[in-house]
Amino acid sequence: MSLSAVLAALLWSHFHPHKSLLPENLARQWHAWLLDNFNAGQSRHGLVAWVAGVLLPALGLALLGALLGDALALLRWGFEVLVLYFCLGFREVSFFAARVARALAESDLAGALAALHAWRPGAPPVKAADGISRIAVEETLKAAIATLLGVLFWYFLFGVAGAVAYRLTLLCRDIWRGEQEFGRFAGQAKHAFDWLPVRAAAFSFAIVGNFQDALDSWRGQSQAWGNDNEGILLAAGAGALGVQLGGNLSVAGGELLRPILGTEEPAGPDSIEGGIALTWRAAMLWLAVVGLLWLGSL
């Protein structure tokens, strides 16, 4: 684990956010091949496929990094920067979220909804500006774990292997989601991988945001969401931002009923920008803590 490698990868992502899709496409093709050739309708086959699609590539990259380190430390550092660069992706997320916020600020509801669905195709077809704002903030906070905080958490614990295993687990869960038995273990692994980072992120949101509202929302509202990891993340994020997330949404054909999270303050375009800023402040807090631990070990 190298703090300087994380900083270098974040800077690289900041100045060159639109990375090549080749590594992700190769991983998708590999996971699709595993689905076609290992899926015999039972959960144990999904476990074997997860080992082949997640664990073996993660350990292989970790071994490659170790071999490079034995030859030249600088080469290993560059390898870790490269891997982290392709695992991180919140800078791209912030562009999409900011595009939705700009359209809402200009009262362009059609443009905001189009930008939201271009970013998150599965988002509900909401009609009102406040509903679009809430969905955009929620998607920003969920992406904060998947593309930044979760990657950093597992990298700090297990190095390159942790970061790669986390990202590949999310990828295979998405690809195998439609297969109830075969995708069961991937879903369980994703939940397990998120359990600690989500709670660390939620507490970090409280520290860098509205502390009391974040903790009150976490304790009092997260269980109603259904998904405990997602509920904790969104409730703490809503409280830290001082806005309301969740809640009923007017959609085409009716109303989507959801629990209320956070405060009574309606979300708006500024809340989307606030969600992006909250995520970066939480990440900077983590980096500061790791930096202090590193200084203490000198």
Provide a concise account of the structure shown.
This protein has 298 residues and is mainly alpha-helical. It has eleven helices and four strands; from the N terminus they run ααααααααααββββα. A two-stranded antiparallel sheet has the order 1-4.
Q: What can you see in these coordinates?
A:
This protein has 298 residues and is mainly alpha-helical. It has one domain (3-296). Helix content is 76%, strand content 4%. It has a two-stranded antiparallel sheet. Helix 5 (90-105) runs antiparallel to helix 7 (129-175) and helix 7 (129-175) packs across helix 11. The two termini are 15 Å apart. The model has no long low-confidence stretch (mean pLDDT 91).
Number of domain modules: 1
Silhouette: globular
How many individual helices? 11
Helical content band:
over 70%
Q: Strand pairing plus helix content: what structural class?
A: mainly alpha
Mean pLDDT: 91
How do the helices and strands follow one another from N- to C-terminus?
HHHHHHHHHHEEEEH
Please state how the strands of the largest beta sheet are arranged side by side. Answer: 1-4
SS elements, strand count: 4
Proportion of strand residues: under 5%
Unreliable sequence segments: none
Describe how the helices and strands are arranged.
Elements: H1 3-15, H2 22-38, H3 43-71, H4 73-87, H5 90-105, H6 109-119, H7 129-175, H8 184-208, H9 211-221, H10 228-241, E1 244-246, E2 249-251, E3 254-256, E4 260-262, H11 269-296
Antiparallel strand pairs: 1-4, 2-3
Task: Give short descriptive properties of this protein.
4 strands, mainly alpha, 11 helices, two-stranded antiparallel ribbon, two-stranded antiparallel sheet, single chain, 298 residues
